[in-house]
Amino acid sequence: MSIRTQKVAGLIRDYLSDPLRRIASEMSAGLITVTSVRVSDDLKIATVYLSVYGGKASAAKVLDRIKDEKGRIRHSIAGKLTLRSTPDLRFFLDDTLDAMDSIQALLDKVKRDDEAAGRKPYTEETVSDDDETDSEPTE
Fold first, then answer.
1. Beta strands 31-39 and 88-93: pairing type?
2. Cβ distance 70 to 89 under 8 Å?
3. Which H, E and C letters describe the chain, residue by residue?
4. How confident is the model at residue 93 (pLDDT cuts 50, 70, 90)?
5. For residue 115, what are the contacts with CB-CB under 8 A and spacing of at least 6?
6. Do the Cβ atoms of 89 and 78 come closer than 8 Å?
7. Which of 56, 54, 55, 19 has the alpha carbon at shortest distance from 34?
């Protein structure tokens, strides 16, 4: 991304806060966070990644509501951006944190299984110097 697209992405992220706060309040959706905004090089498309925490409404319902109000959200942003045309907004749920939690749970399970089997956890001390494969070849 160029510097300009990064600046526009940052502005869009900032300007989304009020409309998303209003939607979260109306739906009792808890906290809606814009995790990232990516703007195409021609500034015509802005891809917005969201995470939804807590609240009574499911993340999928919140995303559907945001997509339904995309026109209003884009109009509110258009009044603040100083661009010839406002980028088309495309909203997606960001599942990065869920993936990180899944990976951490798998690592914790492996550690528990190793401890139950009596194996030592992997550390630098458990690897001997004889096992190194990047030693220099002898002539």
1. unpaired
2. yes
3. CCHHHHHHHHHHHHHCHHHHHHHHHHHCCCEEEEEEEEECCCCCEEEEEEEEECCCCCHHHHHHHHHHCHHHHHHHHHCCCCCCCCCEEEEEECCHHHHHHHHHHHHHHHHHHHHHCCCCCCCHHHCCHHHCCCCCCCC
4. very high
5. 121
6. no
7. 19
Write out the two tokens for 81: 């951006």
Q: Which residues contact 96 (CB under 8 A, 6 or more apart)?
A: 35
Q: Which of 26-35, 86-95, 105-114 has the lowest mean pLDDT?
A: 105-114
* Residues contacting 78, CB < 8 A, separation 6+: 86
d(CA 87, CA 77): 9
CA-based radius of gyration for the chain: 23
Contact 18, 72 (CB under 8 A): no
What pLDDT shows up at residue 133?
54
Backbone angles phi, psi at 93, to 5 degrees: -80, 135
Residue 63 near residue 39, CB atoms below 8 Å: no
